[in-house]
Automatic annotation (TrEMBL):
It holds the Pfam family Uma2. Residues 26-186 form the Putative restriction endonuclease domain. InterPro entries: Nuclease_put_TT1808, Restrct_endonuc-II-like, Uma2. This is Putative restriction endonuclease domain-containing protein. Gene3D superfamilies: tt1808, chain A (3.90.1570.10). It comes from Streptomyces antioxidans.
Length: 200
């Protein structure tokens, strides 16, 4: 019997007790009443705080720009989880995926082999995760590109990383203010000062 099923039968607890050894990636689909955007890191549930306006505008900016500029061989998705392994299921803010990665309309996660780029927009409660934990885990499963987005004076700063496959670690390739212009993973140009515009 799964840990989630044991919890469903034990109605005296409002919150689930973690099983011995921690939760698994598949438990996220079975545990009742989890808050939206719950992640799993090393078998522990991570609950996400309500996000500020900057975070939501940044998601829209990057999602819209990447959808417009990505080739037909790629797809762009926001706030979908990636099952890295048995004990880790993370939710990047924006993903660029290989087209055709979806197995069906009821999917709740992607495999790391389908991910080309993971983007994390840092919030006050996610600094350590976004700067240290998540990049290490994304690199460890071979996701080739990672961006970390931070806020400065209401505008995004984008820290861009590329995977060194020999050591399974990210190497920094640039820090971008005002305008992001890249050739990998495809030709990308984003006006970072447009974050507050209602339309491109």
């Amino acid at each position: 019997m799964s840990a989630a099923r044991e919890y469903e039968l034990d109605e005296q607890y409002e919150w689930a007790r973690p099983p011995q050894g921690g939760w698994t990636a598949d438990d996220l689909d079975r545990l009742p009443n989890l808050p939206p955007h719950t992640e799993l890191i090393d078998g522990s549930l991570v609950l996400v705080s309500p996000q500020p306006l900057f975070h939501m505008r940044a998601l829209c900016l990057f999602e819209n720009a990447l959808v417009e500029q990505a080739s037909d061989s790629l797809d762009v998705m926001r706030e979908m989880t990636v099952k890295l392994d048995y004990k880790n299921r993370l939710e990047p803010d924006v993903l660029v995926l290989r087209a055709g990665a979806d197995a069906g309309p009821l999917d709740t996660w992607y495999g790391p082999e389908d991910v080309v780029l993971a983007i994390e927009v840092m919030s006050a409660d996610s600094k350590e995760r976004d700067r240290e934990v998540k990049p290490r885990k994304y690199a460890g499963v071979g996701i080739p590109h990672f961006w970390r987005v931070e806020e400065d004076g209401g505008l995004p700063i984008v820290y861009v990383y590329e995977l060194d496959p020999a050591v399974k670690a990210y190497q920094p390739t640039g820090i971008y203010h005002n305008k992001l212009r890249l050739t990998l993973p495809f030709d990308i140009e984003i006006d970072l000062t447009a974050i507050h515009r209602r339309r491109p």
